[in-house]
Amino acid sequence: MRSKRSWLGAIALAGALLSGQALASEQSPPCEVGSYQLDNGDMLDIGPGAGGQLRWRTTDGRTGALAPQGDGTWTSTLGWTKRPDGHRVSFTDCGRGGIRFDRTPGQRVLLEQIDTRFQGSGVTLIGRLTLPPGDAPVPLVVLVHGSERDSALERYSLQREFASAGIGVFAYDKRGTGASGGRYTQDYLTLAVDAIHAMREARRLAGARAGRVGYQGGSQGGWVAPLAARIAPVDFVIVSFGLAVSPLGEDREAIAFDMQRGGFGPEATAGAMEIADATARVIESGFTEGYEQLEAVKARYRDEPWYPAVRGNFTWYLLGNDEATVRKDAPQLVYGIPAHYDPMPVLETLDVPQLWVLGGQDRDAPPDETLRRLAALQRDGKPIVTAVYPDADHGMYEFETGPDGERVSTRQPEGYFRLMADFIRGGPLQPEYGKAELSSHP
């Protein structure tokens, strides 16, 4: 599964950090990494992958993992399935002399990259401005993190993909990740102030080339980016697979969606909500109280057929670990999280044009209540566009479901990248972007 949890972050990654394993480094990326324009006009991004692999992406959402072969070529597997998809890639002079994707040759796009150190809110942050070729003004987007702990500079393919589409991009390692200083936190105000500093650094570096400027925030960035825009206005905000409810509200919605997807009825949902109440008490106490209540509801319901389906966004962690482990590790895993943060006062007073792109099958951040709230803001005249991709999970990934019920990501929806790029440019949107269900203010 390829997914980023929207407020807990990836527990496995966090656990690796706590045990001293490095999650990001300042190593140079593989020399093949870059953007390429194929002779048929398609854009192809090559990024780092896992375990010595590379990952290819096209702007229509297709992607695959590339494994090196003994003859100098790379063979591809579909999405994250590990199943061969028939694609083969070769590089000339490590990409400097070009690329061949199947039978189609192409050339590397010579993007301009400027690395920088800048001052965030009391810490030094590491960032990079990536600009398309030329000297004409371009729109500029600042990428705002989700809750992940890995390095954006190493992992965010959008910094190259947007730049290859004529958009300037500023990416940065958020505090406590990658090469940036400070302690990792999920405090939204601190992260929003850091994002404002990043936006100002992006404008400074772009100089005369900076046109309209705004944010794109994924997952947890959907709480951070609007807050940053409310403090220091920008020209646009894009929220991808984010929420207009609190983190605790997210957990409850995710559990309700678990019950719905499992085909369980109201009685099961009521029991699952009792579990959500118990886990919320533990979280609200800073992981110091509420364990007796949690153990009581676990004992009451653990033999119910619906109990294994209770996942939520944080509840699954509390159900799967003993009290000693939770007391020891959880406070660091969600350091600074404002569990009751209500984003609505920010959104109700935010007049910046916003695009919210949500997944109809998002298990971590179910969109229904968020869409209801955004629709009310649209009726009040707020400049909000919503787009729902009905088959997408968290991270805006389509998926296959295995016999064990687990999802494996295959690609991003067709039209997703194009929709974001058009919104950043500021022109009128097209009637269709793949399967997206579009809605805007009257």
UniProtKB/TrEMBL annotation:
Residues 341-398 form the Peptidase S9 prolyl oligopeptidase catalytic domain. PANTHER family: ESTERASE ESTD. InterPro entries: AB_hydrolase_Est10, AB_hydrolase_fold, Hydrolase_4, Peptidase_S9_cat. Keywords: Hydrolase, Signal. It comes from the Bacteria. GO terms for molecular function: hydrolase activity. Residues 1-24 form the signal peptide. This is Alpha/beta hydrolase family protein. Its EC number is 3.4.-.-. Residues 137-230 form the Serine aminopeptidase S33 domain. Pfam families: Hydrolase_4, Peptidase_S9. It is an enzyme of class 3 (hydrolase). It comes from Luteimonas salinilitoris.
